[in-house]
Structure formats: C-alpha cells, structure tokens
Automatic annotation (TrEMBL):
Highest taxon in the source lineage: Bacteria
A biological-process GO annotation: transmembrane transport
Organism of this sequence: Telmatospirillum siberiense
GO cellular component: plasma membrane
Family classification: Belongs to the binding-protein-dependent transport system permease family.
Name of this chain's protein: Nitrate ABC transporter permease
Membrane topology designation: Multi-pass membrane protein
Transmembrane portions of the chain: 65-85, 97-118, 124-143, 164-185, 220-239
Location within or outside the cell: Cell membrane
InterPro entries: MetI-like, MetI-like_sf
Record-linked Pfam families: BPD_transp_1 (PF00528)
Keyword GTP-binding: no
UniProt entry keywords in alphabetical sequence: Cell membrane, Membrane, Transmembrane, Transmembrane helix, Transport
Length: 264
C-alpha cells in the first residue's frame, strides 16, 4: 500500500477515534434520550437493519434524489449553455436565476405539498429546484469563459455545433459543471430529507420524523450515522473516481484539438 494512502487511512482512523471518544464522554454525562451513546446507537442500527422497511426506505430516498438531481443536471446544463452563449438571453433571464437562488428549499417544499400533496413528486420537485440553479449558474459561468476566438476559429474549420460544444465548450465548462454538480448533489440529498419529513409516507426523512415524534433519539442518531456513511461512500466511491475520470477526458479533449485551436 502506498505510503500516502497509509497516512491518509491513519489520519481518518484517528479522527474517527477522537469523535467516538468525545461522543462517549458526552453520552456518559447526559440522559440517553438527549444523547445516546455509541453502543446504544449501534444497537439501533442493527434494529433498523432487521426491520422490514429498511431497504425500501433507503432505496426510495435514493431514487427520489437521483431522479430530481438527474432532471436538474439536464435542465441546468442546457440552460447554462444557452445563457452562456447568448448575452441577450442572459440579460433577460438573469432576474429569474436570482429568484431561484433566493427562495429557500423549505418554501419550495411548502409549494410542492400544495401542488403535489404527499407523493414522490414532492421530494423530486424540491431536489430539482434546489440543485438546478446551482448547476445552471456554474455551467453559465464556465460558458462565459470560453474565448470567442476559439469558437470563431472552429467555425472557420466548418466544425458542426455539436463538435464545437464537445471540443470547445466541453473541456472549458467541465470543471465548473462538476463543481456545481457535486455541490448540488449534496444540497439535494439534504433537502430531500426535509421534503420527506413533511411530504412523504416513507423514506429516510419520514422515518427520522417518526423517530423524533416518538422521542426515539437512538434511532434518530442511527439514521444520521447511516446518512453520513452513505455520503462518504458516494463521495469516495463514486464522485471522486468520476471526477478523476472526467478530468482525464478533459485532458484528452484538449490534446485532441487542432494545433491552431491550442494557441492564442
């Protein structure tokens, strides 16, 4: 195993140990309904694992988040490219973007309840309205950094619009897109729980509210630990490898440009 990887694992293990120690000390001085200890939360995790609805709740929440995020990615990327390529469209729609970024997810959740009731659509809509403006803004900013001379030169070589999009805009907006997408996914995951607490009859957010209503603090902590674990798995097992792969694609795209497009 590489030395830097061993050091990283040791650092993460030390951090986890410090957190567990502080947690255990705090739990030993407070009532369990306020702060349950690690052992009690571990027992609650086992209880959740054995429940009939455990897998369904996790899969339901993941499906809602991925669906809302997927729609937000497509819509945000297309609109971001359109606004970045047209100053007229950008000036016209800029106030709408400010509106989307100002309205909080809680307000969107209330609107969703009114419009869609208690259904999957409520959570999907809230995730979409939270993630889409972030992706749109980042893609728009990335598209604005594309140098016009590269686009004009590509057109002089009779490159088609899809080729210009792939070879000129793609490598430039990729870092902006991925930065916005990672942020949007994190926010979307969190707001999905808020939406599920008020507009769903299953899912992780619904179970959290149910446990809180019954003052089952150990189960609230168990679901929280599970959520943190899922996010760490997604971050380390999916998002970071995907980022490395995408930036390798970017480097390949840059190297494959015509020589005249790689110089000022």
């Amino acid at each position: 195993m590489p030395k830097h990887l061993v050091t990283l694992v040791a650092q993460r293990a030390l951090l986890a140990g410090v957190i567990l120690l502080l947690w255990w000390i705090g739990a030993s001085r407070l009532p369990s309904f306020v702060l349950p200890g690690p052992q009690k939360v571990a027992q609650a995790l086992v209880s959740l694992w054995d429940s009939e609805t455990f897998a369904l709740d996790i899969l339901t929440t993941c499906r809602r988040v991925l669906l809302g995020f997927g729609i937000a990615t497509v819509v945000g990327t297309v609109l971001g490219l359109a606004l970045g390529a047209s100053r007229l469209l950008a000036r016209f729609f800029e106030p709408m973007l400010a509106l989307f970024n100002t309205v909080s997810s809680a307000i969107w959740a209330i609107f969703a309840i009114i419009w869609f009731g208690i259904s999957d659509t409520t959570t999907v809509f809230v995730v979409f309205m939270t993630a889409m403006p972030l992706i749109l803004t980042n893609v728009w900013q990335g598209a604005q950094t594309v140098e016009a001379q590269y686009v004009d030169l590509a057109r002089s070589f009779h490159m088609s619009p899809p080729q210009i999009l792939l070879k000129i805009y793609g490598p430039t907006i990729l870092p902006y897109f991925f930065s916005g997408a990672r942020l949007a996914f994190g926010f979307g995951w969190r707001v999905s729980l808020v939406a599920e607490t008020i507009g769903a009859s299953n899912g992780i957010g619904y179970r959290l509210r149910q446990a809180a209503d019954l003052v089952q603090t150990d189960q609230v902590f168990a679901w929280t630990v599970l959520l943190v674990g899922l996010m760490l798995v997604l971050e380390g097992g999916v998002l970071k490898p995907l980022e490395r792969r995408l930036f390798r694609w970017k480097a390949f795209s840059l190297s494959s440009r015509p020589a005249s497009l790689q110089t000022n």
